[in-house]
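[Solved] Which block belongs to which protein?

Original post:
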Amino acid sequence: MAYIDFVSKLHKSTNRDYLARILEADKAKCAHIAKQFGKDYWDGDRKYGYGGYQYDGRWRTVAEEMARHYNLQPGQKVLDVGCGKGFLLYELCQVVPGLQITGIDISHYAIENAKEEVRQFVHCGLAQDLPYEDKSYDLVYSITTLHNLYIFDLKKAIYHIERVSKGNSYILVEAYRNEREKVNLLYWQLTCECFFSDDEWKWLFKEWEYKGDYSFIYFE
């Protein structure tokens, strides 16, 4: 199990007004709408989620780093748990032509509006109940998804990621290192159910025998 950072540069490129998130709207109502993971969450007002999640190539550098680190080759199989609209899967296919990809996401809207080139490879489903055979993927990854689960489903999701992976897996979740980052996370999040420090996450990974790689994003 190793800490590997593929995403923090992308995460830090977005400016966030944490106070405005709770002062300018009914946060509880916004969270309720966001947790439906429908059009409002992906392509509605920013107070409900992404505020418009369209392909702009931002995931290309992440795909390049992941492909290089895991030495991905044509013909290998990759699974994205919480794939959203499939933008990272698309970029991985551009970086490694011939890669076999699968994506799964709870959001019917995201799957129906996935990037056209990968739409046939993504489908609706649950991270805590992956419908794939044991050791069937060369790389399994989940980026900014698992913290949205309740802890009992989180444990199941990590078990399934381990189960379907041949050995390479990567998990990225939201975390905090101090009280300021904890407050910012609480202010900003709309769908998070697991609020853990980075040390708590590492403890859980070991407790649940997760052997893959991981990293965290912080709200500084």
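(Second protein starts here: sequence line, then its structure tokens.)
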Amino acid sequence: MNRRKFLHRSGLLTAGALATVAGLSCNDDAPANQDQQKAPPPDAPARGTLEAFGIQLWTLRDEMAGDPVEVLRQVAAFGYSQIENFEGPRGLWWGMSHTAFRQHCDELGLAPVASHCNFVQDFETKAAQAAEVGMKYLVAPWVGPQQSIDDFRRIAETFNRCGEICRQHGLRFAYHNHDYSFQPLDGALPQDVMMQETDPELVDFEMDIYWVVTAGADPVEWLNKYPGRWRLCHIKDRKKDAPPDEREASCILGTGSIDFPRILKVARDQGMQYYLVEQEQYEQGTPYECARANAAYLRRLKI
């Protein structure tokens, strides 16, 4: 199942569901730790390999549905030190309590830095639990193409509300792009609208490099256009022989057409914090074999 079908079946995202977020409570009187509200970007590491990298567990979505703890064991063995979770059919914590999920991560030396989630259902609870286990981000994975640019303006308002809820719990909110937000609509680009009409104190962005390239845009231009707004990224390669209109063409890192040394150097310089592998098609091996190969690529990568 691809991500779009999965998200639609999970109730993400309809206009009616978006409207419900407008009613989420935000306790304006809640104390807010200033350090939690907007942490400055860390000092850039010295030129060389990435200091840390992780994996979006969607890469191993079928395996997660079967034995999520074994998936965590495998990705730790491959050399990943961070994970980005996603909300699956058994919930955000895969049938476990949030503290049990964190305990498994701790035992394996994995830092659960973020999770994609259904942000229009029980979001306050998810934010509280994510903060309790030390996550840094909850991420909106998809909103889908819209009918008008005003729809994206309303989505930006929803993101600000979610960002405020996250701030009150001591973590951050972000939006993960697909290709549709780089396609003109009513004379504007939805990605511009969402970035310009969200509060930088409340909302960050996760750049899926693959989808920027698939849309025909240049990730470096977007990193430079909005410095400090892109704090997470999906490192996902695109097959060299994929025609421009082929959307589902991800492959093992280093075997495709995307120039990651160029892009990730700029990303680091512009405030990127989290580098997360993702792969969705597996013509070159099993999902586990691809995850292992992707980790090996990032260990060798020089930026």
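Accepted answer:
You had them paired correctly. Confirming on the second one: The chain has one domain: 3-13+48-300.
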